[in-house]
Amino acid sequence: MSTPATSSSQATDAAAADTDAAATNNAVMESQGTDTDVEIVDVKRRRLKSVVWKEFSRVKINGVWKAECMWCKDKLGGETRNGTTHLHDHLKICQARACRKGLKQSTLRMATASDGTVSVEKYIFDQEVVRKELGLMICLHEYPLSMVDHTGFRKFCAAMQPMFKVPSRNTMRTDILDMHDVQRKSIVKYFQQLSSRVAITTDMWTANHQKKGYMAVTAHYIDDKWELKSFLLRFIYVPAPHTAEVVADVLHEVLVDCHLERKVSTVTLDNCSVNDNMMVKMQDKLPLDSLMLDGSLLHMRCAAHILNLIVKDGMSIMEKGIEKVRDSVGFWCATPKRHEKFEKMASTLSISYTKRIGLDCTTRWNSTFIMLSNALEYQAVFDRLALREKLFTPICPSAAEWIFAKEVCSRLKAFYDISELLSGTKYSIARDILPIPVTTVAFESAFSTSGRVISPHRSRLTPKMIEALMCMQAWSRADMLDSDAAALMTCIEDEEELMEENESTIID
């Protein structure tokens, strides 16, 4: 006795064999008034390139060309002027074809509505839909493309849905590129029809393994519903050398490609001399009559980057004063046994150990602020352990060094709060008036002094593939912002932790 899965497989195999046979033997049959008197002519001579002709035959009846369905033998218009749309529509509703090919497996699944209610709905497995979701998952979470070739992943998919055929790495790459092309065309069409002005921000990224530079160009605008929006336009490769002329040409290419060359209000860039020269050249490339106040407001310097430069200069002076605090944290985080002893001492002193101590990342000054603020809460624990552990005694900061660390922490807090406002999910000015989620400055741009770095497994890919992955990730997050904001925040937090680990690895 055969199972439903076996029957479905047999039906699919039989249909595939029938389709291949029809494609091989498909011919144009010309009738001379009878059904048996036919003339077979090679299809290639007629250049019938549409895939629909694998399931139709062209027959000439009474001097009129007809398309005969190989499944139900129905005859439809087969003239060249008829096109093939009606033939595709027929295949979708052809009962004989559905019976031969086998119906898709139908099951029930639990669906959760936006209000939290759960309902049962009909579910039909679709190979193409699952492949699309797999591609989006790889883009969203920065998984390597090679994961589809992993034995464990394939076994997991087979256990979850035996009908799903896991695509290869090359197929997955093609799927992602195709999805990116389709989405990009719709974006270009959208901005072509947009009536409002657009503010542009740029971020330079680096691929360490290839020593290549990329520019992330983001558009900020108010749509027709008066909602504040932020959208990644391109993640485009910038050829070396990164001179003002080269960067200006790349940015201008993006604006022209998206039909925004006459809609730009401002361009916000990092505060450096190359960008200053680049914006001078951009004013010559853009139509002067389309710029506000003849382009005097076109160039905006990024406030978050200026804050970074200020903090970077200040930290270079204060680094020596907090070295012992950093060494103390590193000593008690070096091994699990030491960390356990630190936690036990906090409990002995009746100090709640809610904030775990941890080393900072030297290129992210916000992590230095967090390290200092957490260490200061456990100053008594450090001092007590210095009396008991001989190895730690010379490392423990003195009273003066603790006071200096507290002073540094208070100074950093002011910059930390300002940077959080700039990189938050709401515009600080409109926070109490317009509760509109939007990202003004990327988290990495607000706190990192080393620039933005592409993950190692992505930096080895081609520029076209990197752009597809980065853009699809940003666009997927934009969709999640409305549907599942909590899941989006979890995803971003995980990525920030991973980025800190990657930066620490690069520095080490």
Automatic annotation (TrEMBL):
Taxonomy, superkingdom: Eukaryota
Pfam families xref list: Dimer_Tnp_hAT
Record-linked SMART domains: ZnF_BED (SM00614)
GO molecular function, one term: protein dimerization activity
SUPFAM superfamilies per UniProt: beta-beta-alpha zinc fingers (SSF57667), Ribonuclease H-like (SSF53098)
Entry-linked PROSITE patterns: ZF_BED
Cellular-component GO terms for this entry: nucleus
Keyword Metal-binding appears in the UniProt entry: yes
Keyword field: DNA-binding, Metal-binding, Nucleus, Transcription, Transcription regulation, Zinc, Zinc-finger
Main location: nucleus
UniProt xrefs under InterPro entries: HATC_C_dom, RNaseH-like_sf, Znf_BED, ZnF_BED_domain_contain, Znf_C2H2_sf
Keyword Nucleus: yes
Domain BED-type positions: 47-106
Subcellular location: Nucleus
PANTHER family: ZINC FINGER BED DOMAIN-CONTAINING PROTEIN 4, ZINC FINGER BED DOMAIN-CONTAINING PROTEIN RICESLEEPER 2-LIKE
Protein name from the UniProt record: BED-type domain-containing protein
Organism whose genome encodes this protein: Digitaria exilis
